């Protein structure tokens, strides 16, 4: 049977890590291994992972110094022995059939380098959003405009892809997933499983938060996340210039992100300016929403978010998320992680 490796980078979050290990070991596909790479501080995390010392399916290594998520992912990939590598962030959780269903798609498409899945967004005990996959086949150069392959914990990647395109770029302390996917997409096709087989949990210690709809494009770490498009622009400028329409859409997305950031800061005039500039690149719902909420202010945006979360949770198809009851999705300590503003 095909060995699949789940790689889990973690940093000082012992209350999440055993849930990540368990969600990988609970897969219906039997041949699984879990490779955990811990950035320091590691003592509390080490104490949790020692519970798996006698489980040959779980291997944990500890960096001597903080190297960041890209380098930690690279170390995990180097240690992985599977034919396929599955990405798993320590606070995300998988449905039990995720790997099995991805393997079916992967093995039916020999030219495919990666298969990703749909996902759900969980916040404060509620399902507040859903990722619906849409990009498949040859997605280059479209992927230069936006990273429409969320959630990243839904990705299964052929191990050979890392030999072909290299590992994660350590110059990216955020957005390394988008950058790597661009390089994979140059050489391979992408496919997806449409079902929501991953749950993302949003809380204050997330590295970043991807928007779940056109209204809520805010990131938890806004200044860091909004610069990702700028880094993509800098690294892939020559390629983008060969594709003017893709370049335009990237610029549009960057201005939208800046606009939402300024709304969050209550810099309403600057936010409106960014929304207006975004509209010049494309008169979309997103650019219109930035201009609208720049005029209305962040308090109205908070109200809209709260209503949206309530409506989404009440209309979600519960049959699609029954597996959550079988897989722990909360921190394992009595004191839960703080949650972001609604």
UniProtKB/TrEMBL annotation:
Record-linked PANTHER family: GLYCOSYLTRANSFERASE (PTHR43685), GLYCOSYLTRANSFERASE 2-LIKE DOMAIN-CONTAINING PROTEIN (PTHR43685:SF2)
Sequence ranges assigned to domain Glycosyltransferase 2-like in this UniProt record: 5-119
CDD domains hit by this protein: Glyco_tranf_GTA_type
Sequence ranges of Acidic residues compositional bias: 332-342
Species of the source: Haloterrigena alkaliphila
Pfam family, one: Glycos_transf_2
Region (Disordered): 322-342
Protein name: Glycosyltransferase family 2 protein
Ranges of Basic and acidic residues composition bias in the record: 322-331
